[in-house]
Amino acid sequence: MCIQNEHLDIIGIAETHLTGKNEIRINGYKWFGHNRTELHERAKKGSGGVGFLVRDDIASRYNIEILDKSVEGILWVHVQQSDGRDCFRACVCYLPPTGTTRNIDANDFYDSLLSQVHVYGNESIFFLCGDFNSRCGDMDDYIAGVDTIPERNVVDFKRNAHGELLCEYLINSNCCILNGRKGVKNNYTYISQLGSSVVDYCLIPYELLDIFEQCDVITMSELIEKHDIFEYVDPLVSKPDHSMLLWNVKVEKCVSEASNDNGNKSEYNKFNLKNIPNSFLADHLRDIEELILSLELNNVNQNNLDIVYQNFVNLLKNEMLEKMDYKVIKVSLGLNNKKRRMKKPWWSDHLTILWNDVCAIEKEMLKSKSDTRKRQCRQEFICKRKLFDRETQRSKRRYWRDQLNEIDNLESTNQTEFWKKDRTGRSRRREKESYTDVCATTGWKYFT
């Protein structure tokens, strides 16, 4: 829901945890993935994995193909225009942190990435993004006195070994970190009860810094609050601890710019441009001549040009509606016409208040400049988050207890009502929730 509401064109995802040929399926998007092939023999689920989600209208108008997935945790895709001209290349990466069971040499990882940049980034727009588990602190990602680029707004001043390797890689590849250089919302990219850090980046070439704009970091709490979806969040599933990085890149004939006018509308007209009648504009030749004369006779300034242009556009629109075949395309802000899900039935105003408290203390923790106050906020954040999780579980159990009591009290002759309630139970089982018998002292059955 967040992805669709944000109307994103291309989405890079790290740590997909997919196995085999599994893929992420979201309505309105096409998946290009690179799953981890070698897993531990005792692994119960997948790990690592990277990929891109590309919006369907872009995937249909542009030629998109996987360029390279020879290195684990690195995936390159190539976006070309329909006539074969190069548009840009994108890379998503995942480098596991040190001390994990997945022993990947960070030096080899960055050496491979450097070689690929020299091959695929030559004379082409490109960017890299992902989870590098590299804390750069305030280290320079460029050669001071040689490279002239804006200073980076640093929020995480701690460093690690991966961060030093990343800065060395950036200097060798003539790239820099986009986080903190563009946009107004710079924040930690990893936030959990264990702490906060900046480990996710968008990396771009120095010379292309001007075409990248508005790079913002949005935390998961802000994202949930922005789209008002905290009532849909399942407390049994952990909230993602990585933030979302958003940025714009200006490329030739970008589909986003062409489709922005329709992106926020509920419907628009799609004309059949292959069947333009011979009489098109035949009745308005005099009107067009008058528009041309108005430009020739009047003082040519920006205001007059805007007026004449708008009159001509209105003339074309009216003629197209009158003489050309078209159909009305109905769309929603989420890029699909499916009915929106109702909120969780067990949600309450009390849970809303608790969630707002969690978001408020998280924001205060991230903005605090004092280490002492930051530690205090972190402890408060942990306590409030635990309280929210506990109350959510209680509310959920109470709701399903009442539902099961209603089923037990239904008359046996009312089959319609019974199966209506039973469908609710079966839908919960599809979400991998099972019936559990409580101890005999209560005599209740509920969902856990």
UniProtKB/TrEMBL annotation:
Q: Name one GO molecular function term.
A: catalytic activity
Tell me which Pfam families the record gives: Exo_endo_phos
> Where's the Endonuclease/exonuclease/phosphatase domain?
3-140
Name of protein: Endonuclease/exonuclease/phosphatase domain-containing protein
Q: The organism's lineage?
A: Eukaryota, Metazoa, Spiralia, Lophotrochozoa, Mollusca
